[in-house]
Amino acid sequence: MNATDYMRTIGKPIAYYPKLAKPLGGISSAILFSQLFYWQDKATSDLGVYKTRDELEDETGLSHNEQRTAIKKLCERGVLIVTEKRLEHKTYYKINNEKVNKVLRNFAKFMIELPRDINSTHLELDIVDAEMATKSSSLDQEITTKTTTKITTNIIVAKPQRQKRACQIPDDFEPTTNHQDIAVNENINLDNEFIKFKDYCLANGKKYIDWNAAFNNWLRNAGKYQRASPNNKANFMTLAERNRAVLESMRG
């Protein structure tokens, strides 16, 4: 037999008021209270409903020790009256509705006067649940709003910058010290190459994102072409001239 099939044979699940766990001292207290409250209008004695510990264990799943602790907490709060008839070997449990109403009002901090008769107990429990649900809903909405705002803010902050677009050569574009160093290393005339580079780009409508990098490539290619030229010897600088040019560029 599967576990789920077995569960159908072991009885019905019980319901309790989860919101009563805190004011009544815990989940066990709330479970026991809810079960005894269910039996109140079915009691045949003014002392309340008669239940044995074994019956309560079968109905709630609470062990004798758990029942003893829960009963103690409920009695301390005045919401449960326990009467033991030793000669009859019976224990009666009666819900003190007035105390229940007081405990719930204090816990929920009600600002209105609530009815105190037994028929109004369900109504008061509904009011407690409604108020708790309203507070919970408001809190959830506040948390959601703050979280959404925080996430939106983070998205705005983390939004990537707009990517640069290629454009034609700027009017104020001029060679840099880095271009001078490349020209010296490649043994080429920077001014002549810059004029040729600028004319070529304007004549062909060239567009680049990074014009400094584009001119770097132009200078390196110019040096490569010059080294491959048959007239390379005539244009080649001596080592001393090259070192002198490097020093002058560094001083400049």
UniProtKB/TrEMBL annotation:
Domain of life per record: Bacteria
The protein, known as: Uncharacterized protein
